[in-house]
Amino acid sequence: MSIRAQVISTIDEKGIDQMGPDDLIVKYHSVDVRTRSRLIVYSNQRAVVRIQGQVQGVFDPGAHDLQTPANPISQFFAKFQYAGNVPWEVEVLFVSTARHEPGVRALRRLRS
């Protein structure tokens, strides 16, 4: 459990983009996303944010601040109430908006 807000994007801690050129969706899942965490959506993406299983929004490219039920105080008390488990989960689906042509690539593989 961290107290600081997070930066959520498809770039990991090592600077590697998790969304490759052939990926359609990259999923980010955590129970430790705080209010005021920063969501970074790149120009070839859209992001769908789900909190507690409900879609909270679809975000266009840019930087967005997230509003979640998680803050240090509520998370501290929730762990007591729910036996160490936090009742809210945050899931971000980064969806590629790049043009994908899997049929053409599949034909090339068959011919070679």
Write the layout of secondary structure elements.
Blueprint: E1 7-8, E2 25-30, E3 38-41, E4 45-51, E5 54-59, E6 62-65, H1 72-81, E7 90-96, H2 102-111
Parallel strand pairs: 1-3
Antiparallel strand pairs: 2-7, 3-6, 4-5, 4-7
Structural summary, described in words:
It is a single chain. By secondary structure, this protein is α+β, with helices and mostly antiparallel strands. The chain has one domain (7-111). Helices cover 18% and strands 32% of the residues. Strand 4 and strand 5 (54-59) form a beta hairpin. Residues 104-112 have low confidence and may be disordered.
> How far is the first residue's CA from the last residue's CA?
51 Å
Number of helices: 2
How many DSSP E strands?
A: 7
Characterize the overall form: elongated
Mean pLDDT: 77
Q: Which key features would you list for this structure?
A:
3-stranded mixed beta sheet, 112 residues, 4-stranded antiparallel beta sheet, alpha+beta, 7 strands, 2 helices, elongated, single chain
